[in-house]
Amino acid sequence: MLILTIESTCDETAAAVVSDALEVRSSVVASQERLHERYGGVVPEIASRAHVERILPVIDEALAKAGVTLADLDAVAVANRPGLGGSLLVGLMAAKALALACDLPLVAIDHLQAHIYACRLAAGRDVFPCVGLIVSGGHSNLYRCESPLDFTPLGGTIDDAAGEAFDKVASMLGLGFPGGPAIQQAAERGDPRRFKLPRPLLDDPSRLDFSFSGLKTAVRYQLFGAGRPEMDARALEPQVVADMAAGVQAAIIDCLAAKAVLALKRTDYRRLCVGGGVAANKPFRERLERLAAEHEFELQVPPLSLCTDNAVMGAIAVERIKAGLFEELDLDISAGLERPTLAR
Ligand code: KG4
Ligand code: ZN
Fold first, then answer.
1. Where would a tag sit more exposed on the chain, N or C end, judged by fewer CB atoms within 10 A?
2. 126-305 has which fold?
């Protein structure tokens, strides 16, 4: 059985062909980084327009690379939640059109479940049950994952996502977009102790939530002073940029790592699966590896190409197909995330 998977939740237009045995026949990702760079973040309107231009060529390329045609497909799957409304719609419309025209079953993909499923694909074996930590540009969430399709929220960010914090701080430091890789690189030459930065909720063992917006404000005040100063990154000394990058990276990693360990203790699960673009961060991965050895849990973090948005992780559609979960052509998008029940 061959499934075409489509991903357009944010600023990556992606398609893949996967089999029901979870073999990846092809994977194509068209990144929009260049388009959003000058704005220091993803501009939703630009993202959806770019998806419209790219979606068909990307699907064509995925089919060609897999050496198949539409006639060889058995199903079409699409990430329809959560994400940017306009971006989600483009992928969904493409998937519905193909389902209708080629008489294919339509399968819905939850983008966050897909990020954790990337760990299943990378491991090559079952990774459930586990604690799932999703850290991306739009999400910082912890879940109790009993199975690929059964997630219970344990906590999440009460304001900005971790990736968003990386991106916004990188923009203040004049490091460009996306901010995560730029901060990681600048931090290599920096002293993480030079600036005193907050780690909100870190010392509250009753909560599995994150808060990163105060970090952003603290960075701004320490770099440019209080009030409404002009934030000119060009005036910053290179060492200040490096030290601040190192400090921010350390603060974000401290919060994510501590709550992940707390979630494992709470659930009594012995496995942590991490997904989303921020999971590409090298010092974060290294910290998690040390914690896994220290606290004796199994750690699953996918390779970098499966951390950032891609359509391969849409292979989670296989689980839905096995469970008989198909959609009608009136399937809609669901842009928002149900606010995690801030579990105590
Ligand atoms: O999962 P993703 O590709 O898209 C969303 O669903 O949001 O995540 C993108 C986010 C961006 O905020 C980017 O700055 C961050 O992942 N990111 C990183 C690294 N690579 C990407 N953050 C920290 N360190 C990295 N190496
Ligand atoms: Zn994502």
1. C
2. Nucleotidyltransferase; domain 5 (3.30.420)
